Amino acid sequence: MLNLSILNLVPLRQGQNFVQAVDAMTRLAQLAERLNFRRYWIAEHHNMPNMASSSTQLLIQHTLANTQKIVVGAGGVMLPNHSPLQVAEQYGTLSQLYPNRVEIGLGRAPGTDMRTAAALRRGNINPDFAEDIATLRRYFSEESRKDSVKAYMAIGQNVPMIILGSSPESAYLAAELGLPYAFASHFAPRFLEMAVEIYRSQFKPSAVLDKPYVIVGANAIVAQTDSEAESLATSQTQLFLGVVTGQTNAVQPPFESEKALWQGFHLPFMGQEKAMVQAMTSCSLIGSPDTVKQQLNALRERVQFEELMAVSYIFDEDRQHRSYELLNELVQK
Fold first, then answer.
1. Tell me, what's the pLDDT at 116?
2. What is the pLDDT of residues 223-265, one digit of tens each?
3. How far apart are the C-alpha atoms of 122 and 298, rounded to whole Å?
4. Helix (H) and strand (E) counts in the chain
5. Measuring CA to CA, how many Å separate 112 from each of 45, 182, 238, 259?
6. Helix/strand/coil (H/E/C) assignment for every residue in 28-73
7. Please, what are the domains in the chain?
């Protein structure tokens, strides 16, 4: 059985403010809980006017307080932006308040531009990711009771940790540590197959896992018909086009079709930009339930994974919720 989860970057839709985006985030978490999704992750991004996910741990606490049982985690904690002590104190506290419902996805990227990253790190621009993970895990261990510096709320708290990656480098680390591995193929699919193969072939059993566990990120937009889903997906295309062109627009209303979208833009080098968008979004499941089922099966033939972490940029919230309902139904079949 394939596990199904949701990653939410908490994007603002056109006309929304930050509070409204967070309210939408909460409603989506409640839907995920009703549908018995495996986990609900919230991303970390900084200095972006179209994303409300800059204080991830606060959004996680808000989500936990407004749900009952679903596991809520960071997708992820961009560890170079934080001291391991602070992360341990924050997520140790969350785990104390919401036992067995908190987990941490750990990433090595800043989740922002380099100038903002420098402001977050306050001069520590080259942290050692593996060393920081070891330090963080130490704070959560019982052995840390004898250390001079302790994260008291974290000691003995069994908060699961997952290594995030968008390149093969992180696959080696996840395999060496025997931790689950989540690949960000929803925006960086180029090395998906290579990274998963490295992780599986190099995996060393640990006290956490006795065999590999892979989470694959994918953009997922499901509707009653292929044409409806393709129309809804034009909001996603516009968002990624903004990434390529350096614009940070909120999620926009959809076009009637992909063709209509590209005809509506008159940008220089559009062929190159279109190719870049298509490359970034190539790990997408878009269509009717039958079409998406075929796409999902094809993806599973290409790469072995235990869990699908779905992302959707759908302008209409009701249609977004219906998309996740349809995705859940087809995965369960």
1. 67
2. 999 999 999 999 999 999 999 988 999 999 999 998 888 887 6
3. 45
4. 12, 9
5. 6, 20, 19, 31
6. HHHHHHHCCCCEEEECCCCCCCCECCCCHHHHHHHHHHCCCCCEEE
7. 3-220+284-332 (3.20.20.30)
What does the buried/exposed string (b/e) look like for 271-305 if buried means 16 or more CB atoms within 10 Å of the residue's CB?
Answer: eebbebbeebbebbbbbbbebbbebbeebeeebeb
Q: pTM above 0.70?
A: yes
Q: CA 299, CA 283: separation in Å to the nearest integer?
A: 8
Look at residue 266 and tell me whether its pLDDT is greater than 90: no
- 223 Cβ contact list (under 8 Å, min separation 6): 229, 232, 287, 288, 319, 322, 323, 326
For strands 181-183 and 284-287, give the pairing. unpaired
Please name the amino acid found at residue 308: L
Distance between CA 215 and CA 148 in Å, rounded? 36
Judged by phi (left if over 0) then psi (alpha if -120 to 50, else beta), residue 156 lies in left
pLDDT digit string (tens) for 52-106?
999 999 999 999 999 999 999 999 899 888 999 999 999 999 999 999 999 999 9
159, 171, 256 from 201: Cα distances, Å:
26, 10, 44
